[in-house]
């Protein structure tokens, strides 16, 4: 017989979305249990995004987990776009009065896990065979296996924060869900190295050989990407070849400031845009990658997860503290309005900066015209900056 427990909110997934939601709820006295199929070392070791919108940083501060972020986060007031030897700096502070913070998702996850384990509530690591039941009833349940035993968790609500391949979205009846997807015909080859960044701000480069990005995680740790084939063979890309390609695509100025070194992580990631709607079915609510994916070009993945948590946490708090269900009813609509704007921005950045067609094609000339317009128009630069630093909730 399965052991049985009860909680107010059952959360599937110990990524940033699930952890942040649990933390915000606990600060208002709302209990939760987090189920995670991986172990702690795996979750804390995942290399992911690193650019936080001001709203995301504020939400982490509200959650009381921003002490290290304030000490170690790198405030960036702009980005640089390079194309055909033209260097354009988008000045966030001048254009919007805001900035972003570079602080790795890995570090955000570690901070949230530490807070959770300091007394907020349980995380069930290595939770196998998680299944969602009765989500259209008054008391949804979660079943799973842990430590060789079957478990049953009775909940008021379930938050599906378990990513694109998780069980949460798959638990919604197919006829109740509508999905939209764009799969891009290329990937990103990423390299992480313990070397200082080549620039104090991110560099986005459009080159005839393909897109590249110079990013960072700290003053001593750099993250670089180059556009590649979706099925690129990593073994064909020794570190030296990657560094040479980065120097070529990012241009002479970046190459002159680049310190090379052995990679500590190297991977190829496909790019896609994806949205599933609605983000609620019965008492199951989707958040983060479980509901939507953006290409990383616009730095929106982690920030959209935080945006979802902003709406969902406030809706649950209003329900438990004031007996108000209106915000829960509106959750999907509220979250999706911001999701679609971020999807548009990420799609636009991706299609403007990547090699999609031969340089002699009409489409390639349109990309260059778009970049020329961006360079000549403060209004266009403001639109980019507003979206990059984060639209208001």
Characterize the structure shown.
The chain is of the alpha/beta class and 393 residues long. Helix content is 38%, strand content 29%. It is built from 13 helices and 21 strands. Strands 7-6-15-16-17-14-18-21 form an 8-stranded mixed sheet. Strand 6 (78-83) and strand 7 (86-91) form a beta hairpin. The mean pLDDT is 96.
Topology:
Elements: E1 3-6, E2 9-12, H1 16-26, E3 32-35, H2 40-45, E4 51-52, H3 54-62, H4 67-72, E5 74-76, E6 78-83, E7 86-91, H5 92-96, E8 100-102, H6 105-120, E9 123-124, E10 128-133, E11 141-146, E12 149-154, E13 157-160, H7 167-170, E14 178-193, E15 203-206, E16 212-218, E17 221-228, H8 239-250, H9 252-256, E18 263-277, E19 280-281, E20 284-286, E21 292-293, H10 301-322, H11 326-353, H12 362-376, H13 378-389
Parallel strand pairs: 1-12, 2-3, 2-13, 3-9, 6-15, 13-20
Antiparallel strand pairs: 4-8, 5-8, 6-7, 10-11, 11-12, 14-17, 14-18, 15-16, 16-17, 18-21, 19-20
Helix pairs in contact: 1-6, 1-10, 10-11, 12-13
Give the key terms:
393 residues; 38% helix; globular; 21 strands; alpha/beta; single chain; 6-stranded mixed β-sheet; 8-stranded mixed β-sheet
Shape, please?
Answer: globular
Number of helices: 13
Q: What is Rg?
A: 21 Å
First-last Cα distance? 45 Å
